[in-house]
Design a protein that fits this description.
The structure is a homodimer. Chain A is built from 7 helices and 9 strands, in the order αββββαβααββαααββ. By secondary structure, chain A is an alpha+beta fold. The termini of chain A are far apart. The first copy, chain A, binds a DNA duplex through helix 7.
Chain lengths: 246, 246
DNA sequence: CTTACTTAGTGTCAAATTAACACTAACTTG
DNA sequence: CAAGTTAGTGTTAATTTGACACTAAGTAAG
């Protein structure tokens, strides 16, 4: 292959989003049921994603994808990696939109991974007619996904862990008002280890961005917990690893 | 613009490398003198980079770019971000290789940023006929670069800081055998603050991957320091923020 | 050869942070 | 009203951190 040939095909560029959610049953990721499954036994999933448009940058593409899927704006969004193995194309080829819009059926697809955080209370796929194909899947039972999306998901998960260690982003996954139990549960789930309750509370309540409310949980079959809020404006963005238990 | 039109042009995809070096005079970055400067007064620089080839993945493209430039293999390399503002193209357009090989003069350029670490002793631009256009530039006197390369450089710098906080990669910037003074100097330079000498030594020598040699510095006009080596195999890769002075 | 200069190398203590640990309180359900 | 469940709370020992100043070993300049 001549040098000119090896350069002559411009790749497709897409954005794929790892959308995390968290509720009573744990950490979830938003998957899309595919139309043209490789195997006909059982469902076939992929991460939400799309080609970028000519007039948008990468962040805008990610926002558009999320908006089209969830109708939500202003979601937490963070780019974490680009994936460009030449063999990605062989599988990405069979995407409906790819087949229909691309000029060059041989061109590969380079994709940029973003992760996003949603309060599941704000997005229920079944309730949105335009999002019928979307589904919250527990992170620990994610099946084999299309393309290299398992790899992208894994990288997104690592990126989330790292982020949660250094910035108070966990609040994006919780309801506006939450209990310290829920917050601890979230950290334990994402980090993958248990945290001493009293040590956790001492540390987290010492941070200025956590605001205690004069309000309690309702309708639970045990002592109701006090509710807290995230106080964005009190967070000063100085870098210092936030959580280093263990 | 119809949806089809806005998707019809595939972007160019390139890789740009922020190559760091460190010596007595501080932290350096490797810049390339451009052939077609925008302004004719003074030199004009850019980061080393190139379009990816059809048969290589992103890491391979970065390795190729570095190999072609420095003739060095096995350099430390880490992807840190993708940049895809649509307006990048307007300036990237005038790159010689872009003009010559691309199909579509309107297509934008999406680029993936990598940073790399070199021991400057291993690469002296002036000595390599094929690298005459390369130049080590002190990080704090980097001029305005072509395209959005100042932004990419800045992001690369942040990525290096973060990496050095969590993994022992600084050794990639020092000679095989180095003194604790050099090591501390490197950390202070990259992190941007001073570190107490005794506290630094206590912490760093407590780490298993640092191996004291029975050898001393030679030819310095002061008490010669003991030399140390990085012991790759002793490093266990467990995540725990390595340096959190301040 | 003596002095000046430069960087290497070393220890202690107080303060802050972390880890480990167990019981009572408040609510719902049966 | 008993059982079940999660909330909420404090102390202590161990570890880590931050602050701090002097002597040692070499070269260079006079």
């Amino acid at each position: 292959m001549s040098e000119n040939q090896s350069l002559s095909l411009n790749p497709n560029v897409s954005v794929d989003c790892v959308v995390f959610g968290f509720d009573l049953s744990g950490l979830k990721v938003l998957l899309i049921e595919r139309e043209n499954p490789d195997n006909t036994d059982g469902k076939n999933y992929q991460l939400p994603g799309d080609l970028i448009r000519n007039d948008e940058n990468l962040d805008e593409a990610a926002k558009r994808i999320l908006k089209e899927l969830t109708a939500l704006d202003n979601l937490f969004l963070s780019q974490f990696a680009a994936f460009g193995d030449p063999s990605r194309v062989k599988r990405e080829n069979d995407l409906e939109w790819l087949r229909s819009v691309r000029k060059d059926p041989e061109a590969r697809v380079v994709t940029v991974g973003y992760f996003s955080l949603i309060k599941p209370e704000n997005f229920k796929p079944a309730a949105n007619s335009f999002a019928r194909k979307a589904e919250w899947m527990s992170i620990d039972i994610v099946p084999e996904l299309a393309f290299d999306h398992n790899l992208i998901l894994q990288n997104g998960m690592e990126a989330l862990k790292l982020k949660m260690r250094t910035e108070p982003v966990g609040f994006e996954l919780l309801p506006e008002k939450f209990t310290l139990g829920q917050l601890q549960n979230l950290y334990e789930t994402v980090m993958g280890f248990e945290i001493d309750k009293r040590n956790f509370r001492r540390k987290i309540t010492g941070m200025d961005f956590l605001k205690a409310l004069d309000e309690k949980q309702q309708g639970v079959a045990h002592k109701p917990a006090r509710l807290y809020e995230f106080n964005q404006s009190a967070y000063n963005h100085s870098f210092s690893p936030m959580f280093d238990f263990q």
